[in-house]
Batch of 2 targets.
Target 1
Amino acid sequence: MSSSRCSVVVLISGNGSNLQALIDCSKHANFVISAVVSNRADAYGLVRAKAEQIPTIVLDHQRFPDRLAFDTQLIQEIDKFNPRLLVLAGFMRILSEKFIQHYNGKVINIHPSLLPGYRGTNTHQRVLDAGEKVHGVSVHFVTEELDGGPVILQATVTIEKADTASMLEEKIHRQEHQIYPEVVTLFADNRLQMKDNRAWLDERLLPQHGYREQTPS
Ligand code: GRF
């Protein structure tokens, strides 16, 4: 482990199970979670962060007149920690152009679908309603296009006949907790980059679905 670990700020709005997976991984990886930011004071992820003595910031978006005012304050708070990477882990806010440009190439998100399919919310139910046989999750760089940035890694899950949306959510979470720490570790080790709106690993351009062959689990 190098002496200068990659500083990561994690943004959440809720339970924070992905945050927990990242906290656990950070104990033996080349990154440190410098702060956790939530737009909701009741996010359980804040409890997880405090239990590990990670600084927390609550910025309630409802107290700001508009998205730009909120994002401007968000940038100020985040920059105090001088992060190399921002990790969106269930952060339920659309980020402004200003925010994305400020951190260009330094923000990643995890989205519960096989992008470019099923952008937006309620993905598990929509996948079931469409009669899909395979579902999945994507880690991607964040760009101004909502859920549209270049994919770094995807994991798939097989949809069984009896699966409900909440069963799918659980299956997806199990995959998320594996792949998100893996991607953050790669970034911390300087192996991952966004260039020309594409994702690169070890200086190689990644295919549209990211760096791993997809085999349904
Ligand atoms: C995850 O399913 C992630 O894909 C989505 O939000 C959810 C966050 O879950 N972006 P948690 O708060 O990490 O448990």
Note: The chain has six helices and ten strands.
Target 2
Amino acid sequence: MQTIGNRITAPSRQADQRMAVASTGRLSVRPIVVNASAFGVRKAANQLLRELRRTRPATRKVSCAAVPGVQSTTATPLDIVFVAAEVAPWSKTGGLGDVTGGLPIELVKRGHRVMTIAPRYDQYADAWDTSVVIDVMGEKVRFFHSIKEGVHRVWVDHPWFLAKVWGKTGSKLYGPRSGADFLDNNRRFSLFCKAAIEAVRALPFGPGEECIFVANDWHSSLVPVMLKEVYQASGQFSRAKSVLAIHNIAFQGRMWEDAFADMQMPPSAFDKFQFSDGYPKVYTEATPMEEEDLAPLTGRTYRKINWLKAGILSADKLITVSPNYAAEISADPAGGVELDDVIRSRGGIEGIVNGMDIEEWNPKTDKYLALPYDQNTVYAGKAAAKEALQAELGLPVDPTAPLFAFIGRLEEQKGVDIILAALPKLLAVPKVQVAILGTGKAAYEKMVNAIGLKYSGKAMGVVKFSAPLAHMLTAGADFMLVPSRFEPCGLIQLHAMHYGTVPVVASTGGLVDTVKEGVTGFHMGALNTERLDEADAEALVATCRRAAEVFATPKYADMVYNCISQDLSWARPAQKWEGVLEELWHGVSNGASVASGVNGAGASAGAGASDAIAAATAKKTEVRVPVQEKIPGDFPAVARSSNVRRAETGAAAAGAAPVTAPPMGAWRAPAAPAVTPYTAVTTPTTAPPTPKPAVTPAAAPAAPTAVPATAIRPAARPAVARPAETAAPATNGASAAAAGGNGVSADGVKPPAAAGVAAAAKPAAAASENGTGDGAAATAPSVPQVSSSVRSLASSRKAA
Ligand code: ADP
């Protein structure tokens, strides 16, 4: 018998039976109640009608008309189902929630039928009980539903979600704190993924089996795996397609191998999950990330499973949040956090820059601004906002002082240590003022708190999470500092530009794709991902000096206008997504153009810029980024949209008539009446993996040495202080469990557990995952030491 979290499972005949049906790929998920006459469904129907009356039918262009053979089908709206652990504003710890909140709305506007499926972490006031209950992995799962702006929002209801994080929604979805994932996350997200697949055919308003699933990050990586290994293998969902969207490759869902048994997956899927790395620890509640997890690698390998890897190998299409990030994560083990080779084996990954929420962040309607503004009144508006901001921060109210702001997590990923190191020289630039807003590691919070006193009249630091101040800074600052060491897409620079505030950015990830040197911002080059480098602080100062020189010249006014005039909404990213999904659904193989949009296979629009930046900044010299596109109103990723490419090829651009899409929300009727329990259910089998031979170092997918021990770069690499074989005596339960954890070394022998901690270590092995890494790694003080925290974002997401 095994204890996992607060639940107990016993290997049983039932499990054996599930194993027995594994080969047929059916059974084990069965509807318990499907009560169509229930109040909930009546209410749902009324709500749906109200929504439909409110929502005008969408029109959209026939974007693929130019592609031979698909003209007749492109007018057909797609059925798109996003499966994600977060959906903003209901649940959010970062960009993942923003994407699944904003993108579906734009896809609906383009005429598609879109559903999101996420766990029900809280008693959302706007979601009603559908009364549909199914059996998944022996558990009863209910579905709640709301419909907003034409998007069906479905919530998977089970105590593993609501009871686990209730009252902590939005911050503790994956564990009690960063770097300490819930022990049963393997079962939680297995249940979630399986319920999500079943939802599309169990719910009366669902699309049925013919749809495109968009899985997001590791938490929903089982969706593509299940589709391939279980459903399609048994003739179900045969036309369904799956996309895996990677929002931050640092989060991979690495767990000890034994976790596979509780996921009730067919043994045939095990190979896809199999992974090994050099880190004898995974970060869970039982073995959380600690400061001492910084020790160098031992050279041994440890057998694990990796959810994201399995998802990458199974999905029909891979997408990430910017073209440049796509290039970075395909390039080498450091960029791809040891999954670069897996991505390359799939032919690369497409990058589409995220949009931003232009309702919450809108200078025209911003309730925190005394004088709202738009692009026609931006100079007056920003002047008023700056005056209010300087007064609020206790800085001299001086319109001629170039004011640089920073908003974000006080962690190495965001480069706050570089700003702090650069501060004395930066503040020596005539008239420069600096404002920092953020929360994060205690050591950095202390330093940020102190700068108001230390640099009185020149700089101010505010350590809190303050939406009002974030809005005031975004509007009132002249420049927004974004010196991230890595940034898959980044929101801060988008917000800043939308308010006419000029970003000063590191040349990484989505910052390269969204900020154009000398046009909409300034680039400081790529920063050292290993440690705090004096050259980086110098680069930051030099770039800010350049910006300050431009400030108050006509060029600066142009840049402000360029920034605020762009369309940074979800509209264009949605157009790009549409193109990719249409290609996938209609099976269009537009070889050359598709390849050009996929990193690893061809150049990205941003690649020219990246190359220039990389070359120039290697020497920390001035960065010149080729500007190939017109500003305002565009950014490079959009130009690489496959549907845009199609439009360029002709017919769509030549005036194909827009078509009217069916009313939004009107999914086709379910295959069977809701009252009829469907039987075509599948699933998993409880079969534990067939024991695998021990991983040999040579067979390891990625040599641990490929990731430097001190890499800031995300981490696959949860560096651990006490490798089992050299473990010092345990000092506390958690680290003892880590030291004695269930890693299996290269020779297949688990590191010996310290006496007395075996019991703690065992559950960790059953369900352990890498935790997020912004926990305790800072050693901080006056010279901030870049720790593993950036690299060790680990497998869940931050629990901010
Ligand atoms: P992350 O990697 O943290 O998701 P992003 O740039 O994508 O970084 O988004 C960060 C978001 O959090 C932005 O909307 C930013 O305004 C907000 N934010 C970060 N820190 C603070 C803070 N201390 N107060 C208010 N808002 C904050």
Note: Residues 1-46, 48-74, 589-800 have pLDDT under 50 and may be disordered.
